[in-house]
Amino acid sequence: MGSPVLAAPSSISAAPQSDQERAIARVIACHYGDGGVYLPRQSGRRETLRVAVASGFVDTQGFLTPKGRRLLARCGT
Q1: Distance separating alpha carbons of residues 32 and 35, to the nearest angstrom
Q2: Domain, as residue range, for 69
Q3: Is the residue at 40 inside a domain?
Q4: Distance CA 73, CA 77 (A)
Q5: Which of 20, 39, 60, 71 allows an S-S link to 43, with CB 3.0 to 4.6 Å?
């Protein structure tokens, strides 16, 4: 008898479900090794960063949360 095969949770393996999640993934992909998110001054993505914070992908101090890291893993960025 072989061991059972465990399926990955769909929330981890699924691609982003919305344009908003894809936009957030593009913004939070700009992060330092310590998880701090940065944006170039002329990026025009500040509103998307605000949405990322409000949605729990980035904390209020500007660092990726576990939820943000999972989104990046799903997006392959």
Answers
A1: 5
A2: 17-75
A3: yes
A4: 6
A5: 39
Q: What is the pLDDT of residues 34-60, one digit of tens each?
A: 889 888 776 678 889 999 999 999 999
Half-sphere CA count of 64, side-chain side, radius 13 A: 23
Q: At what angle do helices 46-54 and 19-28 cross, to 10 degrees?
A: 100
CB 64 within 8 A of CB 53: no
In a domain, 24, yes or no: yes
Q: Kindly report the length of the chain.
A: 77
Q: Which of 20, 73, 17 is nearest to 51 (CA)?
A: 20
Global model pTM greater than 0.85: no
Q: Are 76 and 12 in contact (CB under 8 A)?
A: no
Domains contained in the chain, number? 1
Q: What are the backbone angles phi and psi of residue 53, rounded to the nearest 5°? A: -65, -50
